[in-house]
Design goal:
The protein is mainly alpha-helical and 207 residues long. The protein is 66% helix and 0% strand. The two termini are 17 Å apart.
């Protein structure tokens, strides 16, 4: 999923990054990598905090004004990702604050709008919710043969103790959220311990 996301960001970043005179050509790939990390890390952080429903809502066209950019701009997840990328542009690349904010506000909503649309397109198998959530939680990261959201398949890839996380004898949405959250937290901890996080994977795409 991360490779497809990087390619999507590269595609959407032609005017805001690649052809932007404020960004030296030799920094283009590093900036695109930081954008990819901002999106993936932002979604992973929401999942780690128990926000599966918020992520599902982000990918629900009806919740985002039919998937349009204007609807996405009102989503707090998108706002957080924009801020994160803005900080990376200033801290990692020395781009002045106003310019960095303009680049982030131009690129990130466009990327997420396309990501939402492609995820909801049954004729496009480059993204699906199974692969997106799976890649952020240590589960299956490969797009399925058919686009769609199969939580059973995701959870089956990173748990061996069943889906009844709270031990109440029933498998409900709370159990699913608990498994997803624990998986995302585990991936975050691995990154902190030097076990290979999202940015390590993204940097590998640049080689």
């Amino acid at each position: 999923m991360l490779e497809n996301l990087f390619n999507l960001i590269k595609e959407q970043g032609v005017s805001s990054v690649i052809e932007n005179p404020a960004i030296p050509n030799e920094q283009n790939n590093a900036v695109l990598a930081d954008a990819t990390h901002s999106v993936a890390d932002g979604l992973q952080g929401v999942l780690a905090g128990g926000g599966l429903q918020n992520v599902l809502s982000l990918f629900n066209k009806n919740d985002n004004g039919s998937g349009g950019i204007n609807g996405l701009l009102n989503n707090p997840i998108v706002g957080s990702i924009v801020n994160n990328f803005t900080n990376k542009l200033t801290d990692n690349h020395g781009i002045p604050g106003n310019q960095a904010s303009g680049i982030a506000n131009n690129l990130i909503p466009s990327v997420l709008s396309n990501l939402v649309n492609r995820t909801n397109d049954p004729n496009n198998n480059s993204f699906d919710l199974s692969s997106i959530i799976g890649s952020l939680t240590g589960g299956n990261s490969q797009p399925g043969a058919a686009a769609g959201f199969n939580l059973q398949d995701i959870l089956g890839n990173f748990t061996n103790d069943g889906l009844d996380a709270n031990g109440d004898g029933k498998v409900g949405f709370d159990d699913i959220m608990s498994k997803i959250s624990a998986g995302a937290q585990h991936q975050q901890q691995k990154a902190k311990n030097g076990g290979g996080g999202l940015m390590d994977i993204i940097q590998g795409l640049l080689k």
